[in-house]
């Protein structure tokens, strides 16, 4: 299912179980600034052409078109900057660990990881009307002995994701205990 | 054409090109899904190139001397 996905430091036998990004609605809300910019450009053009009937015969018409074109270029870049911010923020759950890839602007990128066996507590949280309607929210992963929590931000189906992480953590813990038991029995 | 206008326009184009280079770099270097990154880079480059070329054509069509002639200091 996630065969196309490759992330830095991926082990050969590591399987991607979940690949998560923020909910599409969060991206849509950010996209409203681009849509507002495009609407503004259209509005300016319509207003100027309506207010001045002979605008197309004057030198200002080309200036207006040039300004509109510059605005369109700015909107194009803004859309891709917002999309990159959405696209490059990701949370990956594999059969071994949880990885958080956090892109903050152009030149700040954080990648943190957490082994499934280190997980002590997983909490999901959906707060607000819109998150409840669209079923998105946060997940907090608490590790043993650490104050800071691993946080999945505004991801879709947080309750389902939480259950999957808990199941994987249980499975990994049991497998580790079994390996340890076998090692001890082997020594004895 | 006023050299100040040309200077400003070159500066704007350089800033846009720098942003474009940063966007393409991030799309290709930090890619998670090769297919998505490739398609989005192509869309961005084609769209940005078309917009930049049309913007340059429109810049050349503006009669800057006539426009700036109205602003006498």
Give an account of the 3D structure:
The complex is a heterodimer of chains A (188) and B (73). In chain A, 50% of the residues lie in helices and 24% in strands. In chain A, strands 1-2-3-4 form a four-stranded antiparallel β-sheet. A three-stranded antiparallel β-sheet of chain A has the order 5-6-7. In chain A, helix 1 runs antiparallel to helix 2. The radius of gyration of chain A is 25 Å and the shape is elongated. Chain B is mainly α and 73 residues long. Chain B has one domain. The mean pLDDT of chain B is 88. Classes of the chains: A alpha+beta (188), B mainly alpha (73). The interface between A and B is medium-sized, with 28 and 30 residues.
- Percentage of residues in strands of chain B: under 5%
* Radius of gyration of chain B (Å): 17 Å
Order of helices and strands of chain A: EHHEEEEHEEH
Instruction: Characterize the main sheet of chain B.
Output: none
Strand content of chain A: 15-25%
Q: If you average the pLDDT of chain B, what whole number results?
A: 88
Give the total of domains of chain A. 2
